[in-house]
Design a protein that fits this description.
Blueprint lengths: L1 H18 L6 H11 L3 H15 L15 E11 L8 H15 L22 E5 L12 E5 L28 E6 L6 E3 L11 E4 H4 L13 H9 L63 H9 L37 E3 L8 E3 L10
Parallel strand pairs: 1-2, 1-3, 1-4, 4-6
Antiparallel strand pairs: 5-6, 7-8
Length: 364
C-alpha cells in the first residue's frame, strides 16, 4: 500500500515539474529530423563550420565593423479551433514588441542582470516587424488566421501544411514564419537550420504566446525569444548534454537546464566564481527571470546574415516594402461550429441530415 502511494506521489510530482518548466523540444525535434534525413546532419555541420569561420575571436562591440540594425519580416499564422484561440492583432503586436525589447536589450528587467554578467549583456541589433507585403507583393498586416479541425498538434510540423489542415509557410528566405496553435504538452520548438525550407520557422503554443495565462513559466511572452534564438543558431546553454558546449565562449558551462527562478550563484561544471547564467534566454528558467543574450550569442546570430549565411537572404526581403497590390480583405467569418440541419421537422417516415460540405468534418 505504501509503495503504491509513493509511486502515485512520484508520478504527480514528475508531472507537476514538467508543467512548471519551459518545455522546449527543439533538440529532440532535431534528432528526429536527423533520423528522417541523412543529409541534414551534414548540412548542420557545414553551417557550424561557416559560423566558426565568421565569428570574431573577441566578442566585444568594437569588433563589429558595420553597426546596422537587421530588420526581419515576420508572418504569424494563427491556427484556431475554438473562438477564444483567435488571437487579436493587439496580442500579436505585443509579442513582436517583446521580441524587439529582448533582442535590442531594451527590456526593463535588464536592470536585474547580476553585476558579474552585466558587461556581457548584448544589444543584438536585430529587430522584428510584421510583414507589410506578402510573397506576391500584396498588402498584408503580417497575420493570418485559419480555422482548423485539429484540436491539438504534435511537434511534427503538420501545422505547417495546408494539406494537413495547417497553414503553408511564406517563403522562409524572406520571412520568419511563426505558427501559433495548441501544442500537446509543448511550449514551442524551432526548425533545424539547414533543414527543409517548408518547415522553416518556429511553433508556439497558445499558452506561450498569449499573455493572458497564469503560468509564471511563460506569462511574459519570452518563449518566443527562446525559440527565435534557436532559429538564429543558438543552442541551449548546456549544449543538451551534461556540462555540454553551446559553442559560445562567454556563456559558462553548466550541468543542465535550470527551472523556476533561481537566485545567487549556482556553481556547476567548475564554472566558478560566477556560476550558471540562468538569466540567459537560452535557459529554461521562468519568464520573469530571463533577461539577456551575451556578446558571444550576438556574434553567432549575426554571422548567419553574412554573405553565404543561411539567413543572408532576409536582408533583401521585400516583406517590409510597400505593397504593389491592394485587395479588399475577405471578411473573416467564424465557423458555425458544425451545425447540422435536420428536416423535415416533424419527421414521419424519413429524416434527412444535411451536413453540407465542411472541411471541419474531416477526421471526425
Amino acid at each position: 500500500m505504501k509503495t503504491g502511494l509513493i509511486f502515485i506521489l512520484f508520478t504527480f510530482i514528475t508531472i507537476s515539474c514538467l508543467n512548471a518548466q519551459r518545455n522546449c523540444v527543439s533538440k529532440s525535434y532535431q534528432l528526429e529530423a536527423f533520423a528522417k534525413d541523412a543529409a541534414l546532419k551534414n548540412n548542420v555541420a557545414a553551417i557550424e563550420s561557416f559560423i566558426a569561420r565568421q565569428q570574431p575571436q573577441n566578442t566585444t562591440e568594437g569588433n563589429r565593423i558595420e553597426s546596422t540594425i537587421i530588420k526581419i519580416p515576420v508572418v504569424v499564422h494563427i491556427l484556431y479551433h475554438s473562438p477564444e484561440q483567435k488571437l487579436t492583432d493587439a496580442v500579436v503586436q505585443n509579442q513582436i514588441k517583446i521580441l524587439n525589447e529582448a533582442f535590442r536589450k531594451q527590456n526593463a528587467d535588464t536592470a536585474n542582470i547580476p553585476a558579474r554578467f552585466k558587461a556581457l549583456a548584448a544589444d543584438c541589433e536585430i529587430e522584428f516587424q510584421l510583414a507589410t507585403s506578402d510573397p506576391k507583393r500584396r498588402y498584408t498586416n503580417g497575420i493570418t488566421r485559419k480555422y482548423t479541425p485539429i484540436k491539438e498538434w504534435e511537434a511534427n510540423d503538420e501545422m505547417k501544411y495546408a494539406a494537413k489542415m495547417g497553414t503553408d509557410a511564406w517563403d522562409p528566405k524572406s520571412y520568419l514564419n511563426i505558427w501559433v496553435c495548441k501544442l500537446d504538452n509543448v511550449s514551442g520548438y524551432s526548425s533545424v537550420i539547414g533543414g527543409t525550407t517548408e518547415n522553416d520557422g518556429i511553433v508556439l503554443d497558445f499558452n506561450a504566446f498569449d499573455l493572458n495565462v497564469t503560468s509564471a513559466v511563460s506569462n511574459l511572452g519570452k518563449t518566443a525569444v527562446h525559440e527565435v534564438g534557436h532559429w538564429l543558431g543558438l543552442k541551449h546553454l548546456w549544449g543538451d548534454e551534461y556540462c555540454g558546449d553551446d559553442g559560445i565562449t562567454d556563456t559558462p558551462k553548466q550541468s543542465g537546464n535550470n527551472v523556476s527562478c533561481p537566485s545567487g550563484v549556482l556553481i556547476s561544471c567548475g564554472n566558478g566564481p560566477n556560476g550558471d547564467m540562468y538569466m540567459n534566454y537560452m535557459d529554461f528558467t521562468n519568464d520573469d527571470c530571463i533577461n539577456m543574450f551575451t556578446l558571444g550569442q550576438k556574434a553567432r546570430m549575426l554571422s548567419l546574415f553574412n554573405p553565404g549565411g543561411v539567413r543572408n537572404s532576409l536582408l533583401t526581403s521585400k516583406g517590409l516594402d510597400a505593397p504593389i497590390i491592394f485587395e479588399s480583405p475577405v471578411p473573416e467569418e467564424d465557423p458555425r461550429w458544425l451545425e447540422v440541419k435536420m428536416y423535415p421537422n416533424p419527421a414521419t417516415s424519413e429524416l434527412i441530415l444535411d451536413l453540407a460540405y465542411d472541411i471541419r468534418w474531416i477526421g471526425k
